[in-house]
Design brief:
This protein has 124 residues and is an all-alpha fold. The protein has 2 domains: 38 residues, no CATH class; 60 residues. The protein is 68% helix and 0% strand.
Amino acid sequence: MLENYFPILVFVLVALVFGCMPILMGWLIGPNRPDSEKLSPFECGFEPFEDARIKFDVRYYLVAITFIIFDLEVAFMFPWAAIFKEFVVTDSVRMFGFIEMFVFMGILIVGFVYAWLKGALDWE
């Protein structure tokens, strides 16, 4: 039984060697001469002029959450569409699968309309 998993073990070991070897070689062989210029903070070619821990506007998070919602919607719709031919075999299952996807999309659309009406997507 375990001999069936041996190729997977070899694959994982080879992947670890190929992934870790360049990092280890760079750490061992590469020069390490830190100076004040290398150790200084860097921000787009300029000296940093603010603290790195500034508060972001909540609208950035709202846009990110909206993106995640629609990304998940598409991620759930692709497998459903791929197996929809299997749903078509039986009439009762076909309608159940079709209505199920419309309920799923309806819930997401209601959330999107709510966010839109509350002004969460307005950008000034």
